[in-house]
Specification:
nucleotidyltransferase; about 325 residues; 7 strands; Rossmann fold; DNA-directed DNA polymerase activity; P-loop_NTPase; DNA_polIII_delta; DNA polymerase III subunit delta; alpha/beta; single chain; two-stranded parallel ribbon; five-stranded parallel beta sheet; Zinc Finger, Delta Prime, domain 3
Length: about 325
């Protein structure tokens, strides 16, 4: 089901008692939160709407709330984040599992329980997970691919009668790695920039939108593989000055080389491979484009050298900058 389907259920008053929301697109998940909240009248939300983090409170207070009748209203809404009992990392007691099953089998009329989970982490072998999946309406909100992000961007700007030129759009997608949530977060600045001209140009994007860490790792890996050592060292210096921790930067660089190797040995669409590797499809697309310019043996050597650099960073009291300079000289 989609957000539009949920909206129709709300409008028609045909609401189930249990929803399971999966996916990893933050902007859409926040939209789902707002949509479910619209079920409860604003004047009643303090009494009839609750948000719990299962990792903090456990199951008992959630069930107590869910089994309470609505207070002077038609519905009670219980939203649950991090339902780790549906994953391999956590489990309920036998009594808790029984109580949950009984609560879902005989729900209080008008009450809704919404579980926000990540589909990738669900343990579908567990009895309780199977039970929840059999009872719940499943709302899946996966990350938008590049085409969908472009469409959403054009729709958003079109509603506000603002245009974005081709160069600016390409740079915006590059800097945000085509993440719909990240693009959405950057648009208020860009709309303010284009308030007079009604056009977002390349100058506005480069001046206002910072590159995501994965995009910076892509740039650094590209410079290393193209043997542009002075430029790679300059970028490394800048990233450290801007607050990047050497270990994290090394991990990002290692991750980029690993991705290149994984993509080089794989087939399938950007979307399917991205889902398999748990990365955004746009990163897969960029990796495929980059591989036409690199020798695979060079990528393998870089990956092994960066791994050795990480081991030295963790085990020796050596200046990380010296290690990176040494890596560039020997690579």
């Amino acid at each position: 089901m989609t957000l539009q389907t949920v909206k129709q259920q709300i409008e028609q008053g045909t609401l189930p008692n249990l929803y399971l929301v999966t996916g990893n697109e933050p902007a859409l998940i926040q939209k789902a939160h707002r949509l479910f909240a619209s079920i409860i009248d604003p004047a009643e939300q303090e009494m009839n709407q609750s948000i719990y983090d299962f990792a903090e409170v456990g199951l008992d207070p959630i069930l107590d709330d869910y089994l309470s009748a609505p207070f002077f209203g038609d519905h009670r809404l219980v939203l649950v984040e991090n339902p780790s009992f549906l994953t391999a990392g956590s489990k309920l007691t036998a009594n808790q599992e029984k109580a949950l099953q009984e609560a879902l089998a005989q729900p209080v009329p008008g009450n809704l329980l919404v579980l926000f989970a990540n589909e990738a982490s669900l343990d579908k072998r567990k009895k309780v997970t199977k039970f929840v999946l059999s009872r719940a309406e499943l709302l899946d909100l996966p990350a938008l691919d590049e085409r969908q992000t472009r469409q959403a961007l054009h729709q958003f700007l079109g509603q506000r009668r603002v245009e974005i030129n081709q160069e600016a759009e390409a740079e915006l997608l590059l800097r945000t790695q085509a993440s719909y949530s990240q693009v959405l977060a950057e648009l208020p600045k860009l709309l303010a920039y284009a308030s007079q001209t009604k056009t977002i140009d390349l100058t506005g994007v480069t001046g206002l939108v910072s590159k995501e860490s994965t995009a910076q790792a892509f740039d650094l890996a590209d410079l290393v593989l193209k043997q542009k050592k002075a430029e790679a060292l300059h970028l490394y210096h800048d990233l450290i000055k801007n607050g990047e921790a050497p270990l994290r930067l090394n991990a990002l660089l290692l991750g980029q080389f690993r991705l290149l190797l994984q993509v080089a040995g794989s087939t399938g669409s950007d979307q399917s491979l991205g889902a398999t590797l748990k990365v955004h499809p746009y990163r897969v697309k960029l990796a495929r484009q980059s591989l036409s310019h690199y020798r695979l043996g060079q990528v393998r050597a870089g990956f092994l050298n960066i791994m050795q650099m990480e081991i030295k960073m963790k085990s020796e009291t050596v200046d990380p900058l010296f290690l990176f300079e040494q890596f560039l000289l020997e690579f």
